[in-house]
């Protein structure tokens, strides 16, 4: 089966979050399952671009409204990622150092999608399936069906995966001029609540729609940033498929970033060595349990409750706990977390920003991972943590609900219901009881490390989904 993934991110080319991790792993494991998976994304000015070898695969010229542009498709020469990787270069529009964060992001990603569609019309043998990811590619299913210039693509099946429905790519109707000429009678398939909504358009026009966990698909019918009725109406073509993790990248036996490698049989010794490095670096006491948070410091991750939670937990647990934070986001939350270093320096530290190597060492050296998320479509951090024998402490939502079972239900994690300070403090108290029973702690570490969250099962579910659209 020939599968083309279209995405704004892909690790290690360019990554801002979980979308990049998924896009970097899913096609690789589909290729290993003997399918021909390919991926196309914008060409950003990144280290990966500079360090690898490329060849020009295609050149074209098209337009987005009154903006006419040349584009170039370049291909990575060596299949370094385990699949064919294509980048779209639009001079002055996509070739920038950051993925997102520019005033003209909407125009950038519309032009990217147009270039992909224009390129695909020249393919002699079309892909069996085009798999689009998040709103940055959400107009493609519509353009395949209803843009006059892309009529050769009308019968190519599209699958659309929602990694986070909070971000939908809203555009006012005056931006409709950016979209290539289309059947005006189909304009309603672009719209939701009087604006162009690429994510809603994809849900309406894609042949199948997936989310990155079953629980998140269910939640979208009740809480999807205004699209609740749409998901209820389109539920017949929607399915939740839980993400996997790349068990080659995330493997404590071989992880190139770790101070010491380990398996489930040597978990305590290995985690201790990595914890010693962390505690030495951040001036923390190795004998105290280490709680970590890794991720974006934003509302949906409930990052705003972290400063008060940390202060309260340190006080209520008599300074017998340590916390280490790695992340960036809301400037006010960042400032509060920085200020906290001055108040409880013996029990807390933080790094504002992102550091791939440090994140791996934190998963390996920590005892507990905090994930009080308000919204978590799938969540990969909890699966990384379990892989490294670090107990996840999660709010029951989305993929966290699908992957973590509470220790009170014979599971391996600590679960709670609300993103509130005292609930998270109470969860820390439960964690302390586990930490103070080394025999139980060791058994739970070994148990969670044996859980299979690899991509193989996920890949099979996607292949079955693709086959179902090919039979239509």
From TrEMBL:
One of its GO terms (molecular function) is alpha-1,4-glucan glucosyltransferase (UDP-glucose donor) activity. GO terms for biological process: glycogen biosynthetic process. SUPFAM superfamilies: UDP-Glycosyltransferase/glycogen phosphorylase. ADP-alpha-D-glucose binds at residue 15. Residues 2-228 form the Starch synthase catalytic domain. It catalyses: [(1->4)-alpha-D-glucosyl](n) + ADP-alpha-D-glucose = [(1->4)-alpha-D-glucosyl](n+1) + ADP + H(+). Its EC number is 2.4.1.21. InterPro entries: Glyco_trans_1 (IPR001296), GS/SS (IPR011835), Starch_synth_cat_dom (IPR013534). Residues 285-439 form the Glycosyl transferase family domain. Pathway: Glycan biosynthesis; glycogen biosynthesis. Keywords: Glycogen biosynthesis, Glycosyltransferase, Transferase. Signal peptide: none annotated. Belongs to the glycosyltransferase 1 family. Bacterial/plant glycogen synthase subfamily. Synthesizes alpha-1,4-glucan chains using ADP-glucose. PANTHER family: ALPHA AMYLASE DOMAIN-CONTAINING PROTEIN, GRANULE-BOUND STARCH SYNTHASE 1, CHLOROPLASTIC/AMYLOPLASTIC. This is Glycogen synthase. It comes from Haoranjiania flava. The gene is glgA.
